[in-house]
Structure prediction request, 390 residues.
Amino acid sequence: MARWKNWSGRHEALPEALHFVRSKEDAMALVDKARDEGRGIRVAGSGHSHSPLVVSADWIVDISGLAGIIEIDHPEKTAWIYAGTPIYSLGRSLHDAGLALHNQGDIDRQTVAGACATGTHGTGRNLKNLSSAVRAVEVITGSGQLVRCSAESQPELFSVARLGLGGAGIITQLQLQLRDSYQLQENGQDMVFAELFEQIPELAERHDRFEFFWHPQTDQATVKRIDETTGLPEYPVSVEGQRRAWNYEVLPSHRPHLHTEMEYSIPEDLGPACFAELREMIQADFKQVRWPVEYRTLAQDNIWLSTAFQRQTVTISIHEDVRLDESAYFAASERIFRRYQGRPHWGKVNYLKAVDFKSSYSHWQDWWRIRDQFDPDDVFINDYLGSIRS
Ligand SMILES: Cc1cc2nc3c(=O)[nH]c(=O)nc-3n(C[C@H](O)[C@H](O)[C@H](O)COP(=O)(O)OP(=O)(O)OC[C@H]3O[C@@H](n4cnc5c(N)ncnc54)[C@H](O)[C@@H]3O)c2cc1C
Prediction:
């Protein structure tokens, strides 16, 4: 009996087998075997999702053996990258080739495929999530076929696989759109919340990347502004809030304290009001909460299951120590988020049902219809995905 746990330890699986694949051929053979034996497969990235996406009683597949940059197209600024490549190992290698990701989240521990599968994002109102950088995907579907898809070739499969929740098949490699390598100056500052609140739209507009953390039980917030600079990098790289260095050296931070998290995407113009209501609720009903509440911005895109699908977005995240029971706090917060048309982050906690997803995503049923065509035996469906299926 094997054991798999996610980063926070909240989700644990005792799968019948944990398979390590080292090649596409291994992965294709495994899909054929799973179909023949009536087993399900879930692929694990770095296990950094707070939702039970990877949990399975059948087979969990680790593809960390499929890692590294395969080829770079310099004129197009694109690269084919193996699915299991951790983001932290990409930054320097891309930089050596003069290239960079457009943006990334606040940690770099995720795999490329895992991050894209849930719409992982950073902050910046003109910057889209990582799934938006995907130009093409190579995937082994439920029928064991190795398929390359893109907006031009097999576009419907591409619409499913680009932000695929692990439901489209085993992704072996992705082609990402990159840009020239760039330097960033980070400015961290503590502010009185009431003063900050007045300035949210202006700060979001003025800076390439803007975010803040409000600290419950106080009237203080920590604000981060990050802008592109031509100033020389400063080494050793400084502490969070004061770094000036290359993109991959400034954007990821260290988040060692185990927590669980809920994050909702809200239409940009409703973001401040939603945050204010959430704050009032925490001050009135959850006075014990200490973990910060985070506010970020995200550019709209056109990806079927993206939380920023066709709307300019802000994301609001709440956190709780993993040793505490967060359920009442998160449920009350979710009610507020939903009243502001919130869509939950796929890799974080939510308590929604299929009917809620259907009302939040105009392509929800298309996503399932196409997914089902490429995986008629449900090889890639676990209990969680099955529970929210339409
Ligand atoms: C400390 C911390 C900080 C975080 N910061 C951010 C942040 O700043 N911004 C943000 O948006 N999110 C953030 N997240 C959430 C995280 O980015 C996502 O949950 C992400 O999906 C995790 O990537 P992973 O490689 O760990 O994938 P996993 O969690 O292991 O898997 C996620 C999904 O990807 C699928 N998958 C993985 N590899 C493949 C493959 N090869 N083929 C098919 N499916 C695959 C899995 O089946 C699963 O459905 C954070 C999480 C933590 C714990």
